[in-house]
């Protein structure tokens, strides 16, 4: 009896319509598609980057700021460097004047002295003087804990 009742109820249900997807047009790529591709940007003659010895020093800690200068991927020796630390309440020019070593590296010593609030990021800009030009590095950063 239960089987008969199920058959009667299912016969009264809605009909399901089956639709077939429409055919999609064929994509054609013209041979001149990549004719006007822009050129790849040139790598600059000089590249440099800076980083800190500690990403999360104590607010009164002492950290090193490192930077490296390269020319066509090779280290540049003998280039003078300068650095400026950017704190929440003002900037500090580091009065050191290191010259890059045979590996293209320089080191600055930065005494924090509580100049940056805890959990607030600070940056340090480093640049090199080479061939009468100033080369600016990607900045170093740190966040006192």
Walk me through what this model shows.
It is a single chain. The chain is mainly beta and 145 residues long. It has a domain at 46-132: Macroglobulin (MG2) domain (Immunoglobulin-like, Sandwich). The protein contains 1 helix and 9 strands. The strands form 2 sheets. Strands 4, 5, 7, 8 and 9 form a 5-stranded antiparallel sheet that branches. Strands 1, 2, 3 and 6 form a 4-stranded antiparallel sheet that branches. The chain is elongated and about 95 Å long. The N and C termini lie far apart (77 Å). 22% of the residues are buried. The mean pLDDT is 90. It comes from Dictyobacter aurantiacus. This is Lipoprotein. Residues 1-17 form the signal peptide.
Mean pLDDT: 90
**Helicity level, as a percent range?**
under 10%
Shape: elongated
CATH superfamily of the domain at 46-132: Macroglobulin (MG2) domain
Order of helices and strands: HEEEEEEEEE
Tell me which CATH architecture of the domain at 46-132 applies here. Answer: Sandwich
The tally of beta strands, per DSSP, is 9
Q: State the CATH class of the domain at 46-132.
A: Mainly Beta
Q: What class, by secondary structure content?
A: mainly beta
Strand content: 35-45%
Per the CATH scheme, the topology name of the domain at 46-132 is Immunoglobulin-like
User: Which stretches are low in confidence, meaning pLDDT under 50 for 5 or more residues running?
Assistant: none
In oligomeric terms, what are we looking at?
A: single chain
Main beta sheet: 5 strands, antiparallel
- Rg calc: 32 Å
CA-to-CA gap between the ends? 77 Å
The total of helices stands at: 1
